[in-house]
Amino acid sequence: MDKNDIYIIYGNKDLKNMTLQILEKTNIESLIGDRNKKIGIKPNLINSMKASFGSTTHPEIVDGIVQYLFEKGFKNIEIMEGSWVGGNTKEAFKVCGYEDIAQKYGVELIDTKKEKYTSYNCGGIDINICDCAMNVDFMINVPVLKGHCQTEVTCALKNNKGIIPDKEKRRFHTMGLHKPIAHLNLKAKNDFILVDAVCGDVDFEEGGNPVEMSRIMAFLDPVLCDSYGCGLIGYDVEDVEYIKIARRLGIGSTDVENANIHELNSAEGIKNVIPSSRKAQRLSKNINQHDACSACFASLMYAMQRIDDKYGINHVKEEISIGQGFKGKTGKIGIGRCTKCFEKYVDGCPPKAKDILEFLEKEAVK
Ligand code: SF4
Question: Which residues line ligand 1 (CB under 6 A)?
Answer without folding.
Answer: 267-268, 292-293, 295-296, 323-324, 336-338, 349-350
